[in-house]
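Please check this chain.
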Amino acid sequence: MAISLSVVLLLAIILVVMIRSGSIKAGPAIVAALFGFFLASSGMAPTIQNFLDSVASSLNSISL
């Protein structure tokens, strides 16, 4: 849950920066957000969540 919230917040910040800088317009940003919303309610959501969890745990286990 904490990782998901952090990822959502990070992606929201990136989206706002991209819209304000003009590299992405509001229309495509809305389409991308809707795509993510509908993807989250699809059958692929658990697979994507498992992948993101494994990436996060792999990054967490790397010690610099």
About this structure: Helices lie at 2-21, 26-40, 45-61. The radius of gyration is 14 Å. Residues 2-21 form the longest helix (20 residues). The CA atoms of residues 15 and 32 lie 10 Å apart.
